[in-house]
Amino acid sequence: MRLALIALLILSPLAHAAEPIVDCKNANTQLDMNICASQAFKRSDALLNQAYKQKLAQLNADQQKKFKAAQRSWIAFRDSDCDFQSSGVEGGSVQPMIYSGCLQQKTEQRTKEINAFLHCEEGDLSCP
């Protein structure tokens, strides 16, 4: 039993390392829909990281520190809120899809906020 548990713990990261290729336009099983939702979140997260790095490069050292702290707090909020929002189906096969969908939606909203900061109107004092 102990050996099986150790093997599971060792192999678990490898199982998640490469998600299977899924035709997300025709996803029919819950597993496929979960994978597609995860992939969609990962794409939105990559866009967020790109916008974040661009804005970070525009800021002075003090603003960078504050922006980093704000982003860390936002990530903690996003993850906690999505954990709460998906708690109604916790333990069910649909939970990963609901959780990933929530992460994607909140991440896209945050990306829009940061992109707005990248394109501030001249004279807008509320825009860092």
What do you see in this structure?
- This protein has 128 residues and is mostly helical.
- It has a domain of 57 residues.
- It is 73% helix and 0% strand.
- The protein is built from four helices and no strands.
- α3 packs antiparallel against α4.
- The chain is elongated.
- The chain starts with a helix and ends in a 10-residue tail after the last helix.
- The N terminus is likely disordered.
**Sheet with most strands:** none
Mean pLDDT: 87
Structural class: mainly alpha
Rg over CA atoms, rounded to whole Å, is 19 Å
Oligomer: single chain
Percentage of residues in helical conformation: over 70%
Total number of helical segments?
4
Distance between the termini: 56 Å
Strand percentage: under 5%
Estimate the global geometry from the Cα principal axes.
elongated
Number of strands: 0
- Model regions low in confidence, pLDDT < 50 over at least 5 residues: 1-15
Order of helices and strands: HHHH
Key terms:
single chain; 128 residues; mainly alpha; 0% strand; elongated; disordered N terminus
